[in-house]
Amino acid sequence: MDLMKVIHERRSIRRYKKDPIPEEIIMEILNAARVAPSWANTQVCKYIIVKDKDIKERLKEALSPTNPAREAFSQAPIVICQVAQRGVSGFKKGEPATIKGDWFMFDAGIAMEHIVLAAWNFGLGTVHVGSFDAEKAEKILNIPQGFTIVEMTPIGYFDEVPKPTPRKPLSEYIFLNTFGEPYVIE
Amino acid sequence: MDLMKVIHERRSIRRYKKDPIPEEIIMEILNAARVAPSWANTQVCKYIIVKDKDIKERLKEALSPTNPAREAFSQAPIVICQVAQRGVSGFKKGEPATIKGDWFMFDAGIAMEHIVLAAWNFGLGTVHVGSFDAEKAEKILNIPQGFTIVEMTPIGYFDEVPKPTPRKPLSEYIFLNTFGEPYVIE
Question: How far apart, in whole angstroms, are the C-alpha atoms of residue B140 and residue B79?
């Protein structure tokens, strides 16, 4: 599928069909995450492909009861959990290279979006789920010391395509040369 | 261009041609960032399009002398600086919603990668530059309180396409159901 079409047509999907996902498509999607750029090619992200129904149900309990993505954890055939190693991305000789400290969140955002875009390319929906009890989810998935779960997404086929989410106009977030200076085409 | 082709063929570009970028292409690329998903659609990222030669040279001085992207700040016709508002993404009623605190880095990663992929789609190179003196760059660009520069990238046309960067094999970062359990196709 055309890149710009995927970028503009992608939606967050919260209602899934139970249909299984062919293994070769799962691999294509994870391979898209594999080639994502990262701080000094540190590649700190790992992925847990949760197919086990019981584990999916327990992960659902890590979401708050009002989270609109909760039911999706039961419906979708797979939940992908993104795990990142702390203290590596953004570090140089064990010390943070910048005032931002650990860059794992930035690298995780890039790689997870590769998954989200690649999924859409194959007709599969996802939704970035970051709001959950990470400590609870980490116990369920046996995450070792030094790693943390960043995000989870159900992944699966879907019927309904939600309407586009409204976004700020370009004029509100693009400046020329310095902050606040309107972008004027010369 | 095909999404999967862009994902796999994209490279970090550090040598640029001086050729200008047509305005309609700049707008297409920034529009790709506009539609990027973000925490509860908070859209905390803004972009400064630096065309001014003097400002580009000053930004270059915020990079360490050994940074391999330094010369690119002089060569490329434009440097895009990504700025994020702190204390909004990942927050609920003014309090962090998760133990990760501020999610601006995650949202910034997603949106910046939309720029990087969209640029490649139009034959333009970029390189994620996160390692620089952000406080110095923020003074140059008049960044107000509450905002921070996350990343910068030169953007421009290029001649040489670098070789692919080696990545870990899938087996090292994909697990089934829980951390460490090998992913076996059932």
Answer: 13
The whole-angstrom separation of Cα A46 and Cα A111 is 10
pTM over cut 0.95: yes
For residue A80, list its beta bridge partners. A49, A153
- CATH level 3 topology of B3-158: NADH Oxidase (3.40.109)
Query: Would you report the helix, strand and coil content of chain B in percent, each value rounded to 5?
Result: 35, 20, 45
Choose from A26, A42, A80, A178 for mutation: most chain B CBs within 10 A. A178
pLDDT in tens, chain A (186 residues): 999 999 999 999 999 999 999 999 999 999 999 999 999 999 999 999 999 999 999 999 999 888 999 999 999 999 999 999 999 999 999 999 999 999 999 999 999 999 999 999 999 999 999 999 999 999 999 999 999 999 999 999 999 999 999 999 999 999 999 999 999 876
CA distance B108 to chain A (A): 7
**Predicted-complex ipTM score:** 0.98
Which of B3, B55, B176 lies nearest to residue A177, judging by beta carbons? B55
Instruction: Judge: A48–B185 Cβ closer than 8 Å, yes or no.
Output: no
**Interface mutation vs chain B, best among A57, A175, A184, most B CBs within 10 Å:** A175
